[in-house]
Amino acid sequence: MESKMKAKILSDEELAFLMLPQRKFLYWRIKDTYLIVAVIEKWDEKTITLKTEEGKTSTENREDVKIMVP
Prior knowledge:
This protein has a six-stranded antiparallel β-sheet with strand order 1-6-2-3-4-5, with no helix packed on it. The radius of gyration is 12 Å and the shape is globular. The protein is mainly β. The mean pLDDT is 85.
């Protein structure tokens, strides 16, 4: 059976849940053009800062960042 992933913009509540101590690296689509594996470092009304597995941070416009969900 084939699994297709979809991109989803997250609400503040969903972002807060993902920042719990049990952080997991997740797949994020940025500007619908590239994928990164990262955790959320912080966010506000306009931006999201993600930290990659290698420790690099990336701050993106919030509307450009979507989590990949099955």
